[in-house]
Amino acid sequence: MLSTLSLRIDRMEEPLLDVQNLAITLPSDADRRHAVSDLNFTLRRGETLCVIGESGSGKSLTGRAILQLLPKPHVRLSQGRILFEGTDLVQLGEAGMRKIRGNSISMIFQEPMTALNPVLSIGRQIDEVLIAHTSLSRTERGRRMREILAETNLVDPDRILRSYPHQLSGGQRQRAMIAMALILEPKLIIADEPTTALDVTTQAQILRLMKQIQERHRAGLLFITHDFGVVAEIADRVIVMERGRAVESGPAKEVLHAPSHPYTKSLMAAVPSLTPRIRDGQTALEPTTLLAVDSLSKAYLLPGGRSIKAVDNVSLRLGVGETLGIVGESGSGKSSLARLLLRLSEPDEGSIRLDDVDLLALNRSQLRDKRHLFQVVFQDPYGSLNPRWNVGRIIGEGLRLRKEPERKVQEKSEAIIELVGLDRRALSRFPHEFSGGQRQRIAIARALIMDPKLLIADEAVSALDVSIQAQILKLLDNIKRRLNLSMIFITHDLRVAANICDTVMVMQSGRVVEAGPVEIIFRAPQQEYTQNLFAAVPGRLETD
Q1: Average of pLDDT values for 241-270?
Q2: Fewer CB within a 10 Å sphere, N or C end of the chain?
Q3: What's the CATH number where 41 sits?
């Protein structure tokens, strides 16, 4: 009887996932032979293991290797065993893996727009999972889909199910993909940066949802992230990876509070603080106003005849050399406001004056002549850079459209690429040959070559790991000082706003609920909505 009881206890303690001596080989022309080398770790039922490291450290490929989703034949698993409930997935074969994917093991990818099928509705894509792995009736599947969408905080589930990916915001697409991964309540959840593009309140809700499902079924959670706040919030154990190797691992509190490896220490030092930094050169004099926006409003017509005010009576002032941070949840109107300021959308009412020029009074030809005054850096540099053009053509295209001599275009391109920290030889290369952080530098160079007075950065660092993010923020701050540039920095990351902004504006449902100097807003927010945003920042006490 005693031996039987001991056997049961031993089986209960067996790892859900056991990765042994994992090695992933890269193509012969890569910068190193292995993406992952000699990696070993276990994950038990009900446990959360966070894998953290910079871009290129091998985090995502490790997650993909578990589900046999490596981009073969160029990247392949060359060594190791991956035991899931005692079964070696490496030896299972494609037919066996199809039964496991989405059912016993689910993966949440970082970029929903590339993971979701653009020609199928969200409902059709989620329904495919249920059809493949359950015997539920059509009515039961519909009920289950609505339940999981509601749990992921997607308002109006019926509309979401009918919608196609391009009809949803980035945050809505990410939540729909998370719902698809969690709908069968798998035993193992692999989450690859699943909350990177989400605002802090939605991020907190998603993390709570994942923890609830995990606790309900004692699921294992392998969470790949570059966000130490998320690690502090959810991790039981941590693995820190550098260039494919695990350089440090252990209980989350030990790694966060007493890191032993220099690489871990450098990553943690790069995490921006929620406490606004003291800024040099601040003066009591009011800066000259560069941008004046008054009573700006924009409504969009929805199916069924309803309308929604994306921007509702917004006014703001931005001084020369100042940085204004615009923060708020997904759907608060941040990006809609940016599109109006760039005149990519036309407002229903209000005024926009830039450098004392009435932008709304300009016709198309006049606006083109003033475009150089205000430039934009988008969230996804890979999506905003033409993959068929080399960097030199991408950066210099704006000057060429203004009929600048080619010699001047080349000289300015070489100067600006060095200003953003890249070698001038980068001008002959193509976007896919660069890392995410380097591509963002190229996007910044393309904007700066036009000598703008105003730079609008829309979530420009949200997809970057902490060390690259710190470099880009430092770069933008240095460039702002050197060029006396004004910036509008749209972000859902309050730590980033504290690091780079002089003033901050909080938006909710298209309206400004609070605005003022960043030190005052961060020290003592007055509005309940702003207070809730700060309360939702993951790991704020542990990482500040």
Answers
A1: 92
A2: N
A3: 3.40.50.300
